[in-house]
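Marked as duplicate of an earlier ticket. Keeping the data here for the record.
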Amino acid sequence: MSRRRAEPSPVDRARRARFERVFREVYEPLQAYVRRRCDPASADDVVADALLVVWRRLDDVPDGLALPWSYGVARRCLANHRRGDQRRDALVERLQAEPILPPSPAEHDEELEAVLAQLAVDDREIVRLWAWEQLQPREIAVVLDITPNAAAIRVHRAKQRLAALLRTDAGVPGKDDEGAEHKVLGHREEAT
């Protein structure tokens, strides 16, 4: 069944016709106005913003004064554009002034990566959120869409499993190596 596009109402047709008349009257002068006041790369964006405002506020455009009214709109669009440029430039300066931090040792520690690879996927993510992103369990709960209590339990268990694996990998006997191995293997499914 094909759907027919609804015919525009007489009000919509009249609005469109008025916008087209205003557009024909203001477009070229508006282009020239904006190009004299900003760089060519930004001029088209500013004119497009101004014309969007003209369309949205078409009922506010005074009869016989569409061009000066559009100049006022373009003037405010230029000001917005300049403020955006200033914010962008300030951000670039701030970023350039910040020291470049060396990569985290954990990002390139092959031994740690090998041990992490032995953890279940969920435990690996929890450990990374806790250790590398430095999130608290309540924040981890938001990331994983679980309760804060469940996140705290999962963090605790994942840290225990990681510690057990690190002890095993380093050949360091733990308090109860058999118990640690049991915890690592026995509760893997529960952590999901």
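See parent ticket for discussion. The first helix runs from residue 10 to 35.
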